[in-house]
Amino acid sequence: MRGYFGIGAERISKAMNLGAVLRTAHAFGASFAFTIAAHHRAREVALSDTSKSDSHLPLYQWASLDEMVLPKGCVLVGVELDENAVELPRFRHPLCAAYLLGPEKGDLSAAAKARCRHLVKIPTRFCVNLSVAAALVMYDRMLSFGGFAPRPLSGGGAAPVGPAAPGAPLPRRGRR
């Protein structure tokens, strides 16, 4: 897959959500994860991060938005149900991006929104769980950059199989 991405949350308070975000970020090949002004019990994160992502994925924990330092050229993208946000299926992901989600019970701060170059929203009737939103954003990015064959025209069919797409998972061997 081309480029890189990181994913994080502002004022996350539930350790189980953070653990799920880290596990999913590891699964989707994120380059890093981050928190800003997080309020959680670090011990509980491991209960939902069963992939032990801390061995594979750097986690940056900034006390405030002012402390956040992203790599040069990395575009900050806020994920927020906001009337000014672009719907995720219509959004062209930057090659190098950091996706910032708001807290479980609330919105991204005004300062965070102002720092984001783009705001995207998941087109749902109401907010979904923070870790679900993170997974949807990463999945959409994978579809956008993954090089997958187009979907078939009829329902349920599979597109013709060709060479493996760059970044596609390798088939498991020895399993039935």
What do these coordinates show?
- It is a single chain.
- This protein starts with a strand and ends in a 31-residue tail after the last helix.
- The protein has a seven-stranded parallel β-sheet.
- 24% of the residues lie in helices and 19% in strands.
- It has a domain at 27-145: 3-Layer(aba) Sandwich (Alpha/beta knot), CATH 3.40.1280.
- The model has no long low-confidence stretch (mean pLDDT 85).
- The protein is of the alpha/beta class.
- Helix 1 (15-27) crosses helix 2 and helix 1 (15-27) runs parallel beside helix 4 (130-145).
- It is built from four helices and seven strands, in the order βαβαββββαβα.
- The longest helix is centred in the C-terminal third of the chain and has 16 residues, at 130-145.
CATH topology of the domain at 27-145: Alpha/beta knot
Strand content: 15-25%
Biggest sheet statistics? 7 strands, parallel
Beta strand count: 7
Q: What's the helical proportion of residues? A: 10-25%
Rg over CA atoms:
17 Å
Shape: globular
Please identify which CATH superfamily of the domain at 27-145 we are dealing with: SPOUT methyltransferase, trefoil knot domain
- Uncertain spans, ≥5 residues at pLDDT below 50? none
CATH architect. name of the domain at 27-145: 3-Layer(aba) Sandwich
String of helices and strands: EHEHEEEEHEH
Q: Kindly state the mean pLDDT as a whole number?
A: 85
Output the CATH class name of the domain at 27-145. Alpha Beta
Major sheet: arrangement of strands? 3-2-1-6-4-7-5
GO molecular function: RNA binding; RNA methyltransferase activity
Domain tRNA/rRNA methyltransferase SpoU type: 9-139
Region (Disordered): 156-176
InterPro entries: Alpha/beta_knot_MTases (IPR029028), rRNA_Methyltransferase (IPR051259), SpoU_MeTrfase (IPR001537), tRNA_m1G_MTases_N (IPR029026)
